[in-house]
Design brief:
The structure is a single chain. The chain is α+β, with helices and mostly antiparallel strands and 243 residues long. It has two domains: 25-43 and 157-243, Protein of unknown function (DUF541), domain 1 (Translation Initiation Factor IF3, 2-Layer Sandwich), CATH 3.30.110.170; 44-97 and 113-154, Protein of unknown function (DUF541), domain 2 (Alpha-Beta Plaits). It is built from five helices and seven strands. Helix 2 (58-78) runs antiparallel to helix 3. The two termini are 55 Å apart. The model is unreliable at 1-20 and 206-216 (pLDDT under 50).
């Protein structure tokens, strides 16, 4: 009988605690949000370009593609860009099919006939000397690359800037909470929850000259990195009480 009594006690105890917690009144709160931002110049760029080659046989398409991309890599080495900063973004092989002839409804479709292949090789180059970007683009196009997908600006180390933006946002959110508490004649008791988020607004690059103009010997395209904005948002939930 003693053992059964202890089992009953342990089974009932959590229920009593939960009932007691649910009966407590919820504290009054105010919620404030603020955004902190910093503007700075990028110190890194990623240039993406590639080569598409088509041939009747897969071997010929690969051979042509490899020849052009080898020349591109050689031009990049001449610009003192290490191979570690050149990454293959994608490599695809796509068969080309002969167009299907028109047929009547009672004739079954014929098996597709492969008449050639397209090999596409795309690479991304990490350029850390921003003064070289125009020269890099001109060199890879002159070496035979036939598609340029653009460039993306970046920061080598985003963490310190993100943390600083968070500090600015948190301080601004607290200032808002203090101002609200004074206006409402209440006092801030404690912070109940903190939520944070953020993003980076990157400049959008627009090429001032077309690929055709650069291939025709128009010289290096004028590239400007512009500015990047690092933003952070902090939301604070305060418990409040009457003054």
């Amino acid at each position: 009988m003693i053992v059964i009594a202890w089992v009953v006690l342990f089974a009932v105890w959590p229920v009593v605690v939960l009932a007691h917690d649910e009966s407590r009144p919820r504290p009054s709160t105010i919620t404030v949000s603020a955004t902190g931002s910093l503007t700075l110049v990028p110190d890194q760029a990623f240039v993406t370009f590639g080569m598409d080659t088509a041939a009747r046989s897969l071997a010929d398409a690969q051979r042509q593609n490899n020849a052009v991309m080898s020349k591109v890599m050689e031009r990049l080495r001449e610009r003192n860009i290490e191979k570690e900063r050149v990454q293959t973004s994608s490599f695809t092989v796509s068969p080309q099919y002969k167009p299907s002839p028109k047929r009547s409804n009672d004739v079954p479709p014929a098996s597709p006939e492969i008449i050639g292949y397209v090999v596409s090789n795309t690479v991304t180059v990490d350029v850390r000397n921003l003064e070289k970007i125009g020269a890099v683009i001109e060199e890879v196009l002159a070496a035979g690359a036939n598609h340029f997908q653009g460039l993306r600006w970046a920061l080598r180390d985003e963490r310190p800037t993100k943390l600083e933006a968070l500090k600015i946002a948190a301080a601004s959110a607290r200032e808002k909470a203090v101002a609200l508490s004074e206006a409402l004649h209440v006092k801030l008791v404690r912070v109940l929850s903190v939520n944070e988020g953020g993003h980076i607004v990157r400049p959008i690059s627009s090429m001032a000259r077309s690929m055709v103009a650069m291939e025709a010997g128009g010289g290096e395209p004028p590239i400007s990195p512009g500015e990047m904005k690092v933003e952070a948002t902090v939301t604070l939930v305060y418990e409040i009480a009457p003054n």
